[in-house]
Write a structure and sequence with these properties.
The protein has 207 residues and is α+β, with helices and mostly antiparallel strands. The chain folds into 2 domains: 97 residues, no CATH class; 96 residues, no CATH class. It is 36% helix and 14% strand. The strands form 3 sheets. A 3-stranded antiparallel sheet has the order 1-2-3.
């Protein structure tokens, strides 16, 4: 009786372990396959933004090694029937071609072109960093089509969210902006350079 119970427990543990392993494999594969990527199209030799069929890859992971398939491409529908040879580039290094990782790598070690503050950790949910074009207009990086990011990174400068907002307001409402240069006074405080600092009047002692 005891032996049969132990055998039943062993079977249940084996089943539970198999289920847990399958769930972990599905979730891991889905997360690894999710997200936009930038690849070089083998046919056009130009950057293309693609997305994998993450749900299909996760389903295939249950039955063995998942196979990669494209779900979207910036060069579709014109090249909808391509051979998807770009998948080889993704298989070689899935994380490197992720748009988010490419953006982090580009901003790493750089400082804002306006305020010179270095970029720290990028928070994707708040205050996205921006890009300064040669014509001095600015745009947040996530407002640029993913397939154009390599081209834009080669011609634009990095700026922080605060400077992007300030410069956008300056460009759209120049009549409401007064430019002032700032310098430190004797006490170390920042004061407008073009506004004279009035001396503090001396108080006459009372008799």
């Amino acid at each position: 009786m005891i032996l049969s119970n132990l055998f039943l427990v062993a079977i249940l543990l084996l089943i539970a372990g198999t289920v847990v392993f399958a769930v972990v494999s599905v979730v891991r594969t889905y997360l690894m396959s999710h997200g936009s990527r930038i690849v070089i199209c083998p046919e056009t030799k130009s950057p293309a933004a693609v997305q994998l069929n993450a749900a299909r890859a996760a389903r295939d992971a249950v039955f063995g090694k998942p196979l990669l398939h494209l779900e979207r491409c910036s060069q579709w529908p014109e090249r909808k029937n391509c051979g998807q040879e770009c998948l080889a580039e993704i298989q070689m290094d899935p994380a490197r071609c992720l748009v988010g990782n490419m953006v982090k790598e580009w901003y790493r070690g750089k400082s804002c072109a306006y305020c010179q503050r270095p970029f720290g950790e990028i928070h994707w949910h708040d205050r996205q960093p921006a890009l300064l074009a040669p014509d001095r207009t600015s745009v947040q990086w996530n407002e640029v089509a993913a397939e154009r990011l390599p081209e834009v990174f080669a011609t634009h400068l990095p700026i922080c969210w605060d400077c992007h907002i300030a410069e956008t307001f300056r460009r759209q409402h120049p009549e409401m902006v007064t430019d002032r240069r700032w310098e430190r006074n004797a006490s170390g405080a920042h004061v407008p350079k073009d506004v004279p600092v009035l001396p503090v009047p001396k108080q006459t002692p009372r008799n």
